Amino acid sequence: MADGTHMAALEITLKPGWKTYWRAPGDLGIPPSFDWRGSDNLSGVEISWPTPRSLLQGGMTTIGYTDRVVLPLKVLPKRAGRDIRLQGVLNLGVCEDICIPVNLNISAALPKGAQKRDPSIAAALADQPYSAAEARVSGVRCTLSPHAHGLALRADIRMPSAGGPEVAVIETDNPQVWVAPAKTTRKGGTLTAETRLEHVEGRSFAVNRSALRITVLGKSYAVDIQGCPAG
Length: 231
Hints:
The chain has 231 residues and is mainly beta. The protein is 3% helix and 52% strand.
């Protein structure tokens, strides 16, 4: 890349009827995790998640991919102008009727020189949710209230329909806070998502509103909304 980073990707191919999960998989899924500590000349890795699908599993909605998915990796070197050796472990869940955790060892030599552009990576980078501005989101407000074991959250999003039944996935920046699958309803130009937040260890916690992330998955397109001010 022009800025000295290297764009690589992981390609995951699944047998018919099997699925794997997005970064926020829902109640029944296993979120993928990555450990790159065996790498050389590596400062960090940024993942660009292609638009996932809502999938029905055991009567509940999970979020993920079927058939084949390419996960673009923006690889950041410690020292620009030198090769990178990417070495790590990928932990993910793959499911047919039941979920199976899988650990995969990953190794790749990423040369410092420019390489031919890979069309499958380019396609995955293009397959991203729209931004709030691109999807014509005209306003978003979140209301937090006490809940028996944490907080209840209601997000009211003013936006055109993304098509068909819409699913909203809400994420926080705190991995210790569990977010229940949201109940999503639409009335005219407003989409409402209601959920509850609980600390996995039963502790009290605060919510960073600017780091709340809402992804709306519709039949026509998906929308990535970052930040949810008080309403």
